[in-house]
Amino acid sequence: MRHYPTQHPVETRTAVRDLRTLPKAHLHLHFTGSMRPETLLELADKYGVHLPEALQGGEPPKLRATDERGWFRFQRLYDMARSCLREPEDIQRLVREAAEEDLRDGGRWLEIQVDPTSYAPRLGGLIPALEVILDAVDRATRDTGLPIRVLVAANRMKHPLDARTLARLAVRYRDRGVIGFGLSNDERRGFARDFDRAFAIARDGGLLAAPHGGELAGPFSVRDCLDDLGAGRVGHGVRAAEDPALLARLADSDVTCEVCPASNVALGVYEKQEDVPLRVLWDAGVRMALGADDPLLFGSRLAAQYELAREHHAFTDEELAELARQSLRAARMPRPLLDELLADVDAWLAADAGAPDDAEARGVAGTLSDRESSADAATPAGRSR
Ligand SMILES: [Zn+2]
To answer: What's residue 356's pLDDT?
Structure first.
């Protein structure tokens, strides 16, 4: 599907709308990576974990993951942070705070991804770990009003048989909030097709396939996600910009790319923000859902991704609203809620750009309890697109 041309540009005013009140879905957020830096410091203190200097300052560490050493360092920091999540109450706190941060940023739907394997040793095994996580998600949704769903993500560095086990587990918990199956870690290792059986299990079980591709590796890795794993969404996918034929294919498909502009620069995929090919993807008609990836390590959250699109890629408010709609449409949410949130995006755009405070007062806080009940009452509309 192509973007509709803008017929009535309203971008003549100097004031801009508040992007924190633009309703959006957050579809690319990793579990530990969603942690607040100050929470990490408190948990490290609680367990006597000595954090590396890069994680102590509350400032995002300098990373460069385009070579293997840099990626290894990134993973090591991630593992250190994860080692501070030990008890169910830590998991609950993490999810609740992630929900609070997203709500503050205009997030109205969250799909968070997690590999329960990493938490299993401290939480009594794979199944108890996933149950602790799903309980925390339920509780956070109840407490904050933000609907949250889970993607179980396999690790590409592990054996494909492990991924199959995870896929079966994910399908088993489909009625408990698991909506998708992912594949993360270094795209340069192994082949996507090694994980085709795991993804077939997930898809046959009704889950969305959402592997990472087109971040550390080039267009071929996006193609592999589509051809070998039946991806319905691609984590990142930005490197598709290097291949016009692939861009056209994505644009003509139902696939949405979960683009994370701050992450791309933080990890050195692109040198500077202007180099992230947001415009290339947009102009080609590729659908995108902006995401924060790992705010703990990259230093910015959901609304900041839209700010980057505005500041560095010259997206107008109308285009930003369309980006938000794309995120909502790519989410696995019930149809009535989708319709409601799309109407809220229209209202955001229709509101006077000069009065963000009004929009804020009217928006997020007042509608949370309604949102929760409508999300609960709605029957999941199988995404037909
Ligand atoms: Zn990611």
So the answer is: 47
